[in-house]
Backbone:
Protein backbone atom coordinates (compact mmCIF):
# COMPACT_ATOMS: atom_id res chain seq x y z
CA UNK A 1 0.00 0.00 0.00
CA UNK A 2 1.55 3.29 -1.09
CA UNK A 3 1.22 6.49 0.87
CA UNK A 4 -0.16 9.59 -0.79
CA UNK A 5 2.20 12.57 -0.90
CA UNK A 6 1.76 15.25 1.73
CA UNK A 7 0.44 18.64 0.57
CA UNK A 8 3.85 20.22 1.22
CA UNK A 9 5.66 17.71 -0.99
CA UNK A 10 3.02 18.11 -3.70
CA UNK A 11 3.73 21.85 -3.81
CA UNK A 12 7.47 21.22 -3.94
CA UNK A 13 7.07 18.80 -6.84
CA UNK A 14 5.05 21.29 -8.93
CA UNK A 15 6.95 22.50 -11.98
CA UNK A 16 8.33 25.98 -11.47
CA UNK A 17 9.57 28.52 -13.96
CA UNK A 18 13.32 28.93 -14.44
CA UNK A 19 13.01 32.73 -14.48
CA UNK A 20 10.50 33.41 -11.69
CA UNK A 21 9.08 31.76 -8.57
CA UNK A 22 5.70 30.95 -10.13
CA UNK A 23 4.53 27.60 -11.50
CA UNK A 24 4.59 27.22 -15.26
CA UNK A 25 0.83 26.59 -15.20
CA UNK A 26 0.19 30.10 -13.87
CA UNK A 27 1.79 31.81 -16.91
CA UNK A 28 -0.27 33.37 -19.68
CA UNK A 29 1.08 33.64 -23.25
CA UNK A 30 3.00 36.84 -22.54
CA UNK A 31 4.41 35.47 -19.29
CA UNK A 32 5.65 32.32 -21.04
CA UNK A 33 7.47 34.37 -23.68
CA UNK A 34 8.83 36.92 -21.19
CA UNK A 35 10.19 34.26 -18.82
CA UNK A 36 11.65 32.21 -21.69
CA UNK A 37 13.65 35.21 -22.94
CA UNK A 38 14.62 36.18 -19.38
CA UNK A 39 15.99 32.70 -18.76
CA UNK A 40 17.64 32.26 -22.17
CA UNK A 41 19.49 35.58 -21.95
CA UNK A 42 20.20 35.38 -18.19
CA UNK A 43 18.51 38.72 -17.64
CA UNK A 44 17.90 40.15 -14.18
CA UNK A 45 14.47 41.74 -14.31
CA UNK A 46 11.21 41.69 -12.40
CA UNK A 47 8.46 39.21 -13.10
CA UNK A 48 5.39 40.16 -15.17
CA UNK A 49 3.37 37.05 -14.34
CA UNK A 50 -0.23 37.42 -13.22
CA UNK A 51 0.70 36.04 -9.79
CA UNK A 52 2.93 39.05 -9.20
CA UNK A 53 0.54 41.88 -10.05
CA UNK A 54 0.74 44.90 -7.82
CA UNK A 55 -2.14 47.29 -7.62
CA UNK A 56 -1.09 50.88 -7.99
CA UNK A 57 -2.82 54.12 -7.36
CA UNK A 58 -3.78 56.25 -10.31
CA UNK A 59 -3.10 59.95 -9.76
CA UNK A 60 -5.08 62.55 -11.56
CA UNK A 61 -4.66 66.29 -11.65
CA UNK A 62 -8.42 66.79 -11.71
Residues:
Amino acid sequence: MSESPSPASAVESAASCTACPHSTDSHDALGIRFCAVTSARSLDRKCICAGEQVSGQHYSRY
In short: The two ends are 68 Å apart (CA to CA). The chain has a mean pLDDT of 74.
